[in-house]
Amino acid sequence: MRDRVMTVMVAGTETSASALAWTFHYLAAHPYTQQQLHTEVDTVLCGRIPTVADLPKLDVTRRVFTEVLRLRPPGWMTTRVTTTSTRLAGLTIPRRATVVVSPYVLHHDPSSFPDPERFDPDRWLPHNAQHVPRGAMIPFGAGTRKCIGDTLAMTEAALAIAHITSHWQLSSHPGHQVKAALRMTLGVGPLPMRPTPRRPLAP
Ligand code: HEM
Question: Distance from the CA of 19 to the center of ligand 1, in angstroms?
């Protein structure tokens, strides 16, 4: 029981925290996108705390977070062990071999995502997203061992982003260079930022 609780705690905290940190970094680096987000949250929320009922209307929020999961997937690498010898992409893989699968590499394949290093939430507009090949976007893994927290992660992230950007304008710290921190997750490293209140702070 302890191990199960630890798995959910570890798998469900560092991943979401890394993705949110990257989101704040990309918003600060893309003022136009941050402006679009402000317009959305101001229209939908009018300063109140977001709830799950607001999610269908938080379209920019969802696209921004999806694009962050593409560019900087916290689960950048996962593994599978073959149960039988097989051939894959012209290679013979023996039984019990560990195969490394990298969502990061797949998400940066230019044949799936043109100009892959460019941060572009519009990739996830329906008429663009329909051209993304099946299996090209797997921030939560795939198959029977796929992340069990994917819906919770998308929900909590959208609510956090909407609430934070409703109240704060995010700017990067002048002169600070963001460096990826590659561990079990793809973290953002130290991220000093300048938050400016967008509405009067509660007394
Ligand atoms: C942005 C947030 C998250 C990302 C990017 C993420 C990503 C992943 C990835 C890539 C895997 C491996 C899947 C595979 O090998 O195919 C995984 C597994 C897992 N995730 Fe998440 N995850 C996130 C949030 C969460 C949350 C919120 C929870 C639970 C509260 C959670 C619980 C788990 C568990 C328990 C596993 C292991 C599943 C298994 O081995 O059967 N994750 N996650």
Answer: 13
Residue 66 Cβ < 6 Å to ligand 1: no
The pLDDT, as a whole number, for residue 110 is 98
Which residues in the chain show pLDDT less than 50? none
Model pLDDT, residue 7: 86
Distance 78 CA to ligand 1 centre (A): 10
What is the three-class DSSP state of 59?
helix
Query: Residue 63: its pLDDT value, please?
Result: 98
Residue whose CB lies within 8 A of the most ligand 1 atoms, among 1, 138, 147, for a mutation test: 147
What's the pLDDT at 161? 98
132 three-class SS: coil
Question: What pTM does this model have?
Answer: 0.96
Residue 64 CA, ligand 1 centroid: distance in Å:
20
Query: Distances in Å between the alpha carbon of 91 and those of 7, 36, 168, 201?
Result: 33, 46, 51, 60
CATH class of 2-197: mainly alpha
